[in-house]
Design goal:
Elements lengths: L2 H28 L8 H4 L14 H22 L12 H7 L11 H13 L9 E2 L8 H13 L10 H18 L5 E5 L2 H16 L3 H4 L8 E6 L4 H9 L7 E4 L9 H13 L3 E8 L11 H10 L3 E5 L25 E4 L12 E5 L4 H6 L33 H35 L4 E3 L7 E6 L11 H21 L3 E5 L7 E5 L7 H15 L6
Parallel strand pairs: 1-11, 3-4, 3-5, 5-6, 6-7
Antiparallel strand pairs: 2-8, 7-8, 9-10, 10-12, 11-12
The chain binds gamma-amino-butanoic acid.
């Protein structure tokens, strides 16, 4: 056989192999919509792809491409109203359905792809238009793209030297957010969630008043510190008192009005009470958008009291901060936020940035470094070739910081500031639509209060309870209906809404519209589906 003929033979074999692989791939993509790896790659193990093998570009790409197919299928299902939100299983049943064990020996790539598919299959689709369960709902595609790339970049946000672009992005975004609060300068950081953001505010407030605390500790403070927050605040505020050494007894709950807004007169009375006893009131948390009712504390009046008694004013706008974008809804809700010393604002809530993305802002330039810096020499050397102020890691009590900025920056570029304003207005209008629809069906639904935000609080009335006078006894029964109906919703997998009691009422539903996917017909579907699933519920 001549050399030419051998080459021709090998080329023919290669073509056949490629043809078979292409056929397998096409079949995998068309059949059942379940991406499959070719057998040549599916039977490989982790050490046959990068970074273990330099010459494994093709195998690596094929594996990742099929994972991306799984992702894309998931995104499609999330946006398909005919798909269920979840396929609910009890924990024991879920444990049986999944293979979660960690093997002694490696598993092939085809098994890992199956693991990816089954994981997403059993996940609750929080981006589905019928998911109204949490403050963070939705699946913003541009933010998702940012998150995928963030994972690939896999860097830590503590120094400019390893995250140059992302550090500069943080500066740009955080400066813009501060300007929206109403500040020309200041300090900010992204933190792992609103609770930790609130803790950063608490620590900065104590440091501001008692800078010696950092070195000398609690005994250097000349009295009992006291903090104040409304009885509707997020529980993380109370946890600051515990973590920060005050004790939760010294996180004083200020009564709120019937819509969940702090009563400023009560705040002042309680501040004076503690001052009269020699305690040191130093920190007030005002909430802009409470977790359950979506209430906004009156910031102007609270700011006046903070000024009068020389207390730090923090605004927990983790939930309501997004409304700063809206000319229509910003006032009066957030009027006075510019007078705060610090503000928590979570883009992963109302703005729809993917979890997690939480920011905390300070009116005081340099306070984070002053409060938290430990100047670790192995990381934050001062003789670097660039300005060490770009090493933001020393501003925080954590060391490593996840990159939460790229997805927000990319989303903001995609929407523009005007796009966020439109989103805020749309979410608020949809909530107003829901309130109208509830009122129109007052035989089946009972609105608890006129909402200030996208939290709509209501009871569902099954046939058994319709037409009866509304009293405490009926409310207790309506509370029992919530748990039963929520159970039915989860079993059906068609719709999800949260419920909880509060200090004034038994269980009630709290509906959240914070997903850009939701439309009027989804609100109508929600109410009709609750009635379909719940009309025959009977409670004692
Ligand atoms: N404060 C965290 C969010 C709670 C919720 O989604 O209901």
């Amino acid at each position: 056989m001549s050399k030419l003929t051998l080459d021709g033979f090998f080329s023919y074999c290669k073509q056949i192999a490629e043809h078979i692989q292409l056929g397998e791939r096409m079949a995998s993509l068309s059949g059942q919509g379940t991406p499959k790896l070719t057998s040549a790659v599916g039977n490989l193990y982790y050490d046959s792809i990068q970074p273990y093998r330099e010459d494994a570009n093709a195998q690596t790409r094929e594996f990742l491409a099929r994972v991306v197919d799984v992702l894309l299928d998931y995104v499609q299902q999330v946006n398909d109203r005919n798909e269920k939100i979840l396929d609910f299983k009890m924990p024991e049943e879920m444990q049986k359905a999944l293979d979660l064990h960690l093997p002694e020996e490696p598993l092939p790539l085809k098994q890992l792809l199956e693991d990816c598919k089954i994981t997403l299959k059993n996940q609750v689709k929080t981006g589905h238009p019928h998911f109204f369960n949490q403050l963070s709902c939705g699946l913003d595609i541009i933010s998702l793209a940012g998150e995928w790339l963030t994972a690939a970049a896999n860097t830590n946000m503590f120094t400019y030297e390893i995250a140059p672009v992302f550090i500069l992005m943080e500066n740009v975004v955080l400066e813009k957010m501060r300007s929206m609060i109403g500040w020309k300068s200041g300090d900010s950081i992204l933190a792992p969630g609103g609770s930790v953001s609130n803790l950063y505010a608490f620590l900065a407030a104590r440091h501001h008043k008692f800078p010696q605390y950092k070195e000398k500790g609690l005994s250097s403070i000349p009295g009992q510190l006291v903090m104040f927050t409304s009885d509707q605040c997020h529980y993380s505020v109370k946890s600051c008192a515990s973590v920060g050494g005050l004790g939760t007894d010294y996180c004083v709950c200020v009564p709120s009005d019937e819509r969940g807004r702090m009563l400023p007169a009560e705040l002042e009375r309680l501040v004076r009470y503690h001052k009269d006893r020699g305690n040191i009131p130093f920190f007030v948390n005002a909430t802009s958008g409470t977790t359950v009712l979506g209430a906004f504390d009156p910031l102007m009046e609270i700011a006046d009291i903070c000024q009068k008694y020389d207390m730090w004013m923090h605004v927990d706008a983790a939930w309501g901060g997004g409304l700063l974008f809206s000319k229509k809804y910003r006032h009066p809700r957030l009027t006075g936020i510019e007078r705060a010393n610090s503000v928590t604002w979570n883009p992963h809530k109302l703005m729809g940035t993917l979890l997690q993305c939480s920011t905390v802002h300070f009116r005081h330039e340099g306070i984070l470094l002053s409060c938290n810096a430990m100047s670790a020499e192995y990381l934050f050397m001062t003789d670097k070739i660039y300005d060490p102020r770009f090493d933001t890691g020393d501003k925080v009590i954590q060391c490593g910081r996840h990159n939460d900025i790229f997805k927000l920056w990319l989303q903001w570029r995609g929407k523009g500031t005007s796009g966020f304003e439109q989103l805020m207005d749309r979410l608020m209008e949809l909530s107003e639509y829901m309130v109208r629809r509830i009122r129109e069906q007052s035989d089946k639904f009972y609105l608890l209060l006129e909402p200030e935000m996208v939290n709509v609080s209501f009871w569902y009335l099954p046939r058994q309870l319709r037409g009866l006078p509304h009293n405490r006894d009926k409310e207790i029964k309506l509370g029992k209906v919530c748990a039963k109906l929520k159970g039915r919703m989860m079993q059906a997998g068609t719709v999800m809404v949260g419920y909880q009691p509060d200090d004034r009422r038994p269980n009630f539903f709290r509906n959240i519209i914070s997903s850009a996917a939701v439309t009027e017909r989804d609100v109508d579907f929600l109410l009709a589906e609750m009635d379909r699933l719940g009309h025959d519920i009977v409670v004692d």
